[in-house]
Amino acid sequence: MTKENKKARGQKMKWILFALLMVIFLYFLIQGIRCAKGLNKAQAKLDSYKVKTADLSYGSVTYIDQGKGEIILSVHGIFGGYDQAYESIKNRESKNRLLAPSRFGYLGSAVKGTGTPEDQADAFNELLDYLAIDQVFVLATSAGGTPAIRFALDYPERVKGLILFCSAMPVNEKPETYLEYQAPPEPLLSDYAMYLISPLMPALMGMPASTVETIQPISERKAGVVLDGKLTNPDMERNFDQYHIEELSIPVLILHSEDDPVASFDKVENVQHRFPNLTLVTFPDGGHMMTGHSEEINKALDDFLNQYK
User: Fold this and answer.
1) Nearest C-alpha neighbor of 252 from the set 216, 277, 274
2) Where does a domain end: 48, 64, 79?
C-alpha cells in the first residue's frame, strides 16, 4: 500500500468516525427533545385527572374515585400510579365505581412501614375504612398482582373477587435462588435514560417504544419502582411460605395472553391448580397489554362481577 493510499484510508476512517459520532450526537439530541416534550405532555395529562388525597395514619394516598356501581379497586403495575390504575379500567366507569390509588412511592403516595406487600395490603384496608367501603372487587395488573393477592389473603372479608390481568403469579415451591432486585437498574430510572433505551422496549419488555410516554414523569414514580424491584416483585418467591394460595376462598378470575413476554403464561399454567375457585380466560396473542381483546375482557368482567356481586 502506497503512502498516498494509507493517507486516503486514514482520511476515510476519520470521516466514518466523524459520521458515527454525529449520528450518536443527533440521536441523543433528538431523544432529549422528545423527552422534554413528552414530559410536558405527561404533566398536563396528570393535571387533567380528578385526583383526591386521603390522609391516612401513616401518610397520604393519592387516588381517583369515579363512577357508580360495584366497586373495583384497581391495583397498578410497575411505573404506574393513579393514572395507570384508572386507565386500565376506565371503560368500566359507566358500570362500576372505580377506585384507583397510587401504590407506595408512586405519584405522591407515602410509604407505610418498610413498603412490603403486606404493608400495602394494610394500606388498602385503611383506605377502604377511610372511604367507608365494606367490600370491593380487586383488579390487579402486572406487578400489582403481588399486593392484590396479599390483600385477598390478609383481608378476605373485604374482597368479593380477585381479578388478575397479565399479573405476577405465585410459584409452586420456594425457589433455591431468585433475583433479589426485579426492576430496571436505578441509573436508568430517569425520563431521559428511558427515552434513550425506548427503541429496545419491544425486545426487552414486549411493549411498544411509545410506552415511555405513559410512564413519565419518572421522577414521581422512581421511589415506587425501586420498592417494587426490591420488595414487591420478589415477595412471592422470597416469602413463599406466607402465600397460602390454596386457602383463598374468594373467586378468582385470571385473564392472560399466552404470548405475554413480561409475565410468562407458563407461570399461570404451572400454578393455576393452587387457586381453589378459579376462572381462567386466555388469549393466543395480545402481549402484556392483551391488545385486541377488549370486548372479550369486558364480557369476562361482566360475567364475573354479575356472578359474585
Assistant:
1) 277
2) 48
